[in-house]
Specification:
This protein is an alpha/beta fold. Helices cover 27% and strands 26% of the residues. The chain is built from 7 helices and 13 strands. A hairpin with a 7-residue loop joins strand 9 and strand 10. Helix 3 packs across helix 4. Bound molecules: S-adenosyl-L-homocysteine. The site of S-adenosyl-L-homocysteine has 25 residues, from helix 5, strand 9 and strand 11.
Length: 259
């Protein structure tokens, strides 16, 4: 047996969903329950029930690569490690950070048993609150320019809107970059009808949840914060007004002609 085949530990990258345990999959719950060590951003770890004998390593939201490396080192020493993300770990989250570390790290990390456990991502939770805005082709963009240049974000926004995609905007704003969503809306207003529906879903599934449905010409970027996901419709996305009930936002499945 080669030395590398003997690496005994395990690393699971686990999605917690957007809120509490109602939106945690049974698989994710089972993996969390049998881990010997948990790694994650503090606010996410707080969602995982405390279990005797399970170590917890909290880190800051921005320290993703360092956290991934620490979790891999621990797993390589034989631990059963779970590293947690909000939503789905593959969507702007820990799964890619772990892969980056595996690719850059020592060869032994490539022999580890590494698994990825999906979760409900924020755009699906927000979409479900209002109807079916993602019912036709859509894309997801992070507005954060921490890991890519703002010029690329602008180019992708224009391409997505120009191609008729519904656009889910993750990380629409933060204290360090409060101007980005306003710039994004300005750019989208040049490409899409003012009547295009815009959905702001904040802290969906949590006690402080709020949903705001607006049109692009009236959408106020200052109501979004770091816990908000914004869905900008396409020219086909529609709002159904209802008596005594919240409106439904949806994008019909059929598109008859290319405009
Ligand atoms: N991996 C996560 C996304 C991480 S990026 C996922 O799959 O959902 C963080 C962004 O996700 C936030 O800025 C916000 O845009 C969105 N988000 C996460 N949880 C949310 C929630 N409960 N309600 C609305 N948006 C949420």
């Amino acid at each position: 047996m080669s030395r590398q085949a003997a690496v005994p530990g395990q690393l699971a990258v686990v999605g917690l969903g957007p809120a509490d345990a109602r939106w945690l999959t049974p698989e994710a719950g089972a993996v969390l329950a049998r881990a010997s060590a948990l790694y994650g951003y503090g606010a996410y770890l707080d969602r995982v029930p405390v279990r005797a004998g399970q170590a917890r390593y909290r880190s800051d939201n921005r320290e993703e690569r360092g956290r991934a490396a620490a979790a891999l080192r621990d797993a390589a020493r034989g631990a059963q490690v779970a590293i947690v993300s909000g939503g789905d770990p593959g969507v702007f989250a820990m799964a890619a950070a772990v892969c980056e570390e595996i690719e850059a790290g020592p060869p032994a990390w490539r022999s580890l048993d590494v698994g990825f456990v999906p979760g409900i991502t924020a755009m699906l939770a927000v979409a479900a609150r209002v109807g079916a805005p993602l019912g036709q082709d859509f894309c997801a963009l992070s507005l954060s320019d921490n890991l890519k240049p703002w010029a690329l974000i602008e180019r992708r926004l224009a391409a997505a809107a120009g191609a008729g995609f519904v656009i889910a905007l993750y990380n629409p704003t933060s204290r360090a970059r409060p101007w980005q969503l306003a710039l994004a809306f300005d750019q989208l207003r040049r490409l899409l009808p003012g009547s295009t529906p815009v959905v702001f879903g904040r802290a969906v599934g949590r006690s402080d949840e709020s949903i705001v449905i607006a049109t692009l010409d009236a959408a106020d970027p200052t109501i979004a914060d770091m816990a908000t996901l914004v869905i900008v419709g396409s020219a086909n996305t529609r709002i159904i007004e209802r008596l005594g009930r919240a409106p439904i936002v949806y994008t019909p499945r059929a598109i008859e002609a290319v405009s």
